[in-house]
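Protein in question quoted for reference:
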Amino acid sequence: MRGQEGLLAQLDAGEFARRVRNFRKMRRWTLATLSEASGVSISALSKIENEQVAASFDTLLKLSQVIGVSFETIVSGGEEASEVAVPASGRRTTTMRGAGMQFSTARYDYEVHSADLTHKRMIPLVMQIRARDVAPQAEWSSHDGEEFIYVTRGRIELHTEMYLPAVLSAGDSAYIDSRMRHAFINLSDDDSSEILSVCLSDKVSHQVDEIIRSRASTGS
């Protein structure tokens, strides 16, 4: 099993932009095809590829699902490993403290655990919540699957589009439908608020074929 060395890397906007552009061009997709399949606007994709904005977590997740690579591959680069059938007890990995794959967005710092395993059915993340105010709802996260949230340190406020905000302290948890827009803000006196987020995400690789077939039938 590949070790954690080399996984500790910040998400560089320029490197990530080249990665997304290369994945898209290798599949001979236009920005419009990728946009329609992922639900990420053409404008946002163009800005990401031109290094004008940093991609949020849900954007990273949507792009990795549609492009057909693991979340870890689209963040850290490298070739996607082939999936090999193994016994039920054949997959195990450990992540030492501070040794996960790290990247940041404007409002959160992320550390991806078990990043050396590809084709996982869940994505375990430790998130440091730096946001102090609530972003416009259009900027909240929304992605396929479900999400378990456990506060490991500090105090946060969980915002979801269908419920009133919930204040959670260390030891508290929540379980949400990730398709529902959601966001977190830090209520602690410092930046120490931290959560464990485990995302279980559905595969959406069939969407691109459906879009291509639809366009072929309409001649668009």
